[in-house]
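Reading a protein record of the kind used here takes little practice once its layout is understood. Each number in the token line that follows is a code from a learned vocabulary of backbone shapes. One such record is shown here in full, so that the layout can be seen directly:
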Amino acid sequence: MAQLLYRLGKFSARRAFAVIAIWLLLISTAGAAALLSGGKLGTTMTLDGIPSQDLATSLQETFPEAARASGQVVFHKADGAEFSMAEISGISAVLSSVKALIAVDDVADPFVTQATLDGQRADLAAGLVAISDGKAEISANQASLDAGQDQLNAAKSDLEAQAQELQQTLEAMFANNAPGTDQVIAGLAQIRAGLDQIAFQQIELTSGQLKLDAGKTELASNEVQLVAGEKLLGTANNFRTVSVDGQTAFATIYFDQPTGQLDEVAASEVVALIEAQTSAGMQVEYSQSLVFSLDGLLGIGEIIGLAIAALVLAIMLRTFIGAGLPVIAAITGVAISAAITFALSSVIEMTSTTPLLGIMLGLAVGIDYSLFILNRHRRQLKAGVELQESIGLANGTSGNAVVFAGITVVIALLALNLTGVGFLGLMGSAGALAIVVAVSVALTLVPAVLGLAKEKVLTQKERAVRAATGLSSTPEQVYELEEANASHKPVFANKRPWVVIIGVVTVLMIVAVPALSMRLALPDGGAEASDSTAFKSYTLISEAFGPGTNGSLVAIVDVPEKLDEIAELEMQAEVTERLFALDNVSAVLPGGVSTSGLDLMFVLVPEFGPTSAETEQLVFDIRELETVFPDELNANIEVTGIAAVNIDISQKLADVLPLYLGTVVILSFLLLILVFRSLIVPLVATGGFLLTVGATLGAVVAVYQFGWLSEVLGVTQAGPILSFLPILLIGILFGLAMDYQLFVVSGMREAYVHGKSAKDSIDSGIHLGRPVVIAAAIIMVAVFGGFAFSHITMIKPMGFGLAIGVLIDAFLVRLLLVPALMSVIGKAAWYLPKWLDKLLPDVDVEGAKLERSRSQA
């Protein structure tokens, strides 16, 4: 490998213009592909295979209207007055214009929605009064019918008694041939006429009773519906779209695109139209989904980070070309990898944050990798090595280390695909692409520019010394010269190893303590910058309607067969009451019934925000109902929403973390055995990494979850940690930690190979490698730290975590703890069984064979 890279470096230096032209062509091609491919980045992260996401996906079929992309627009009167009729009409007119946009499917006018809710409550109250009046009327009518029936019964009994008495009298008269029978017969006829009249009246009474019974049945049916309606409105009583004080209202914009695929152009059209047509005195804010953009990716923080990196290079290298070359190389690599990633978004669905990891890593790693080769080249030039020979040697030695360092990072990033989390695997792949391009740039473009720069990478004084010394040094002579000029004073970690070990381990374990309380979630509007419209929208809604309105939950109840209208209403009422009875529920609304009639939707508004512990517990409580619904209601229930997705993603990542860590550690461990030809050094490297990860996660939790130093770092609202950040940090920091392990320990191994004792090789390796490692670490911290002040919520904790992780790993672990451990271990650190030594190929990462061959040439 070293020989191949040596020849590649010399070729690039000799054919500098051709190599530069190839890279310019690559930039142009990648840029054209990005512009012409029609790539599009999504705004929402989805994870298939988890219950909440599967349910959300199924809504596209059962409840297509609920699966539409949406965003909220908040209107607020900052002057303390209620909305006037003119302002309400103006807002409604603006929303009507928004509804006319091609990409907009529907608009929920807050004033119309609130009026409908108020009207339903008024109708319900009137209906309940009518039911009460109807009951009273039916009761009075029933009493009247009962009294009439009693009178008829009494009259009938009286007439029947009279008829019986006359009949007996008539029979006696006939038996005795008594006179006056005609009068008795006439009396009987009169009585029968009376009974016929009573029979007729009985028919009327019976008819009246039947009508009254029908009225009772209708009233009972209406009462069932009204009682169910009362329950439904009771559970929805806290839901409003216009605040009680009449100063805040929120409209919901529904798009004709599915959730998670909202086009940025469509959202921007809505925002632009509302901004243009809303009166000047009205405060208007927009939710995250309407204003998310990657515009201004390189903000002031990122620019300051790059400026610090350039300043470090200028101080270290003291030449304009030397300081500028690593930055230009990094930007070249980032431009190509980012353009390729965006072009691929036309055929691969990816989120807006997918290219960002590659940009962060590409900038930091691109500068460092170029610096390692440039620094080696400058050292050789100062020692008197011929220009092109020096470029080839730098490429074959430091470039060889760069290749293996890049491989460890690529392994860690590509292994993210093992998690089964699609967007995380894509981020890892995009980052790996950036690393591959950065390594390629460092191995070809950097040597080409060095060939054109000739000796201008040295200061005038260094060039003068070189001219006076002449061109006679071989690689072995360069090493001997550097050894002679280097400090031979033992480093502190070698003098006081136990003090360092105990001190560093204690400090890192203390810093790691907050990680034990880590909570995970996806960020909501409350995590945005305090001056952003997304944060203001979140805050206004929280203050006027409750924080839970920013992230409602959706529950789906499925029944085995379609219910009739009354049964369906009673089921909705029963479910809403059960859901409303759970802790931390502000309101429950029926969301509709699927066309098949087998699925009923319910919208829950929690009392607390979407990332709060209370709302997470509410999700668990809803899922507990799955155990009782089948038996008690002959139905099943599922839940989705931000909190549900947070829980499911966290569980998914927790399940795959052992596989991911095991794969990365094993592969990198084998690679480090190959590089250092030792079993102990890879173990030391891995142990140090675990301390780095613990302390890094502890620092992230302290800042972003506990809120420590939040004002300094621009953390608007403390809350849970980005759900996939831990696994992302673990993967990236492992790769970067192995980079620094390689650059620090390879110098020790080089000294050990040249015959120094185990202890002396530690001092030699640290003295020779420390300046460039410190500079490289500061550059990485500056670049990553710049992203910690990004306006993009998901990028801020990534930037901070990587910056603090590199700071801890480079300065505490690699430059202090690792040398101290190796000092204690001694010569055994370089032990490798002979049988294994014979099996392993000699990769010559330090380029020792190359140096010997060039010294003999």
The CA atoms of residues 360 and 784 lie 7 Å apart. Residues 110-176 form the longest helix (67 residues).
